[in-house]
Amino acid sequence: MITDREKAAFEAGIKLGALYHQFVGTPIARETAAAIEAAIEQAVGLQPYVTGIRVRLNRDMMVSNRFGYSELAGKMFDAEITTGVGETVCRARLHLEDDYPMMEIVEFHETPRNTDH
Description:
With 117 residues, this protein is an alpha+beta fold. 28% of the residues lie in helices and 36% in strands.
């Protein structure tokens, strides 16, 4: 039997992995970074079990090519996602750790269901 905790962790991980692989390579510039952050948050936030998401992109890594933009790289991501399954909430993140875009679970907690009728 798969627990709510395991499912919440799976959902957080699969969403961070999809976020990473869907958006790496997107043309980006410092001037458009906020719009890309918002678009990623809105797109990922539509998926099942997502209760919160925050995406920040490291603008210092955005070095324009001769056409005035750069490409979104995995190392630019600082993202945090919250998933909820049953009474379990999982918070996970994608961030740069030792020059590598690392995904990790930050915490789990339980939210008691409202039993008032």
